[in-house]
Amino acid sequence: MNTERRGLGFWVLAAFFTLFVLFLYGPLTTIFILSFQGPDGGLTFPMNGVSLRWFQNLFETQAVGDFGGSFLRSLMLGLMVMATTIVVALLAGMAFRRPFWGAGPLFYTAIASLIVPSILVSLGIGLLFQVVGVRSAWYSSAFGAHLTWALPFGLLIMFAVFNRFNPSYEEAARDLGATPWQSFRHVLLPLILPSLIGVGLFGFTLSYDEFARTLMTAGSFNTLPLEIYGMTTNVTTPVLYALGTVTTGFSLLIILLSLLGIYISQRAARRRARA
Fold first, then answer.
1. Mean pLDDT of the 78-86 span
2. How many CB atoms within 10 Å of residue 227?
3. Is the residue at 267 inside a domain?
4. Structural domains counted in the chain
5. Residue among 255, 264, 98, 97 nearest 193 (CA)
6. Which of 4, 142, 202, 247 has its CA 20 to 30 Å from the CA of residue 170?
7. One matching Pfam family, short form (predicted)?
8. CB 89 within 8 A of CB 155
9. How confident is the model over 110-156, as pLDDT tens digits?
């Protein structure tokens, strides 16, 4: 009887997971297919031929939309958020390894932005810049808004890493005469490097596709999510699908590069351990 119940539960979970995957990737598959419409194709099925016309159109002068500029802004903003998240999360994680006065309130203050509605964060930062007389821009106000979203995730990851970290490795290095910097550079950093890559990936992806916290803070120039949203109301060709395919491929490329970086760092750590 128990075997039958386990079998039924397995098939129910398998069916649910299959539906979840179809719901998650079905729309992406549809966009991918329609991005290869022929020159006279529209926004829906059936397809009218097959071509790369709409991918080529991405690199041409557009009557509506600024694909290249918005992509570069999102890329630069994502890299800025990634670098800042890595540095601040690492320093904060190391600081919280030892108890200090006010650690609890500081921790909850740092992660409080996760429970605040994103649109309110965007509105508040936009109003603040307006009150102080500073013009909102993607590299200033939007940068700060994105940090309120990406940085708490980086902090939580690094806190979890250091809570499980064995300090005896650093103590052994100091017993052998290593300076604090040498202990950090040759012992601590290689061990936590995969986690730092994960923090960077979180920071970049959370910034790259963020819409709500960018809406009131981007200023005069759109990031890619804002540009895509604006295009949905005035673009009537499959060029929008081509843009979606390219940006999705770029996101997957970033993930693959991050996984490759983690793999390389782990292999290097194993080599050093054998030596």
1. 95
2. 21
3. no
4. 1
5. 264
6. 202
7. BPD_transp_1
8. yes
9. 888 888 889 999 999 999 998 998 899 999 999 999 999 999 999 99
Q: What is the CATH number of the domain that holds 83?
A: 1.10.3720.10
Q: Is residue 96 part of a domain?
A: yes
Q: Is 155 exposed, middle or buried (0-12, 13-18, 19+ CB in 10 A)?
A: buried
| pLDDT band at residue 1 using 50, 70 and 90 as cut-offs | very low
Q: Is 219 left (phi over 0), alpha (psi -120 to 50) or beta?
A: left
Which residues constitute the domain of residue 110? 69-235
Residue 53: inside a domain, yes or no? no
Residue type, 236: T
pTM, two decimal places = 0.81
